[in-house]
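SAMPLE LOG
Freezer: B-3
Tube label: C17
Construct: single chain, 100 aa
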Amino acid sequence: MDKVYSLRHLFFFSKPLLTITEQGFYYKNTLYTPDDVRRVYVSNGGGGPKRMGVHLADGRKILINAVALELNGVKPKTGFLSGTNDVFESLRAYFEGAGP
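STRUCTURE (predicted):
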């Protein structure tokens, strides 16, 4: 089953971000393989939610905010002190395991 990650905007609207399939992941209608991931960085927002940036081989960057992230239309509960959630951490593990 494909995993569809979305970002929630203004608490009401959700916009698809990327889809993970068996072949790789789709970002902006382009299929990328795990070999296309060049760099992954995670930062704490100064006491706020965690943020992740993924640099791809073609120069694109995926920016992800833990609080706004959804998986298959379901919003996970984000920890008040940790600034992260299970969906964000699983996506982080996917990208960190994918890169060189």
